[in-house]
Structures are given as C-alpha cells and as structure tokens.
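Q:
My hope is that you can spare some time for a protein that puzzles me. I hope you can help me see how the letters and the tokens relate. Thank you; the sequence and its tokens follow:
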Amino acid sequence: MPVRGPIMGYIPIAILFAIALAIPVGALTVGRFVRRTVMTPEKMMSYECGVDPVSDARERISVRYYVIAMLFLIFDVETIFLFPWAVIFDQLALFGLIEAFIFIGILVVGYYYAWRKGALDWA
C-alpha cells in the first residue's frame, strides 16, 4: 500500500482549479478567432437601452442618485433580515411578533428621517 503524503490530498483541487481556469480561457480564445470583427459607427456607439445617446457618457451625475441608491441598498438588505424571522415565526410566538414590529418601526423611522432630510428628492 503506497504511503500518501499531505500534498496528495490537494491534487484533485488543483485539477479542478485547472479545469475551471481552462474552460473560460479556452472559450474566450476560441471566440476571439471565430467571431467577425466588423466595426461600424453604430457598434462603436455607447449603448443606452436602445436609445441613441444624447450626451457624453462621462458627464457628472448628481450625488442624490448615489444617495438614493445607497438608501435602497440599506433598506433592502435590512428587510432581508425579516426572512429568518418569518421562517421560525411559529417558534417565536408573541415575542417574535413584537420584535419584528420594533425592527420594522426602526426601518420606518429611518425612512422618514431620510425623507424629511430631502435625501429622496430629485429636484
């Protein structure tokens, strides 16, 4: 019976890593040689949901856009925390219900605060 060293356990992982690296690199390489490369002005134009662009893509964007995006992410991620609560709702009973209302209340207060500060106004 051959003696297995500690490195022998990593060989399947190395093979899997090599395959995982070879497949996308191979697909991109084959695609590069197979595709047609005809550059037209329409292809070189920036894509904006099927609408012709009206200005440069590097124009300044209002900070309010980023604030609203961050608020969306914060409130969206916080509502994800309600899912585990909903899964074990029957085990939590009245305590869980009160806890969920407190959590939702904190979210509503935060939303109201952002609204009153004008973080959600576009103008």
Observations:
- Residues 6-116 form a domain with the Methane Monooxygenase Hydroxylase; Chain G, domain 1 fold (CATH 1.20.58.1610).
- The chain has one domain: 6-116.
- Helices lie at 11-34, 41-44, 63-80, 82-87, 89-116.
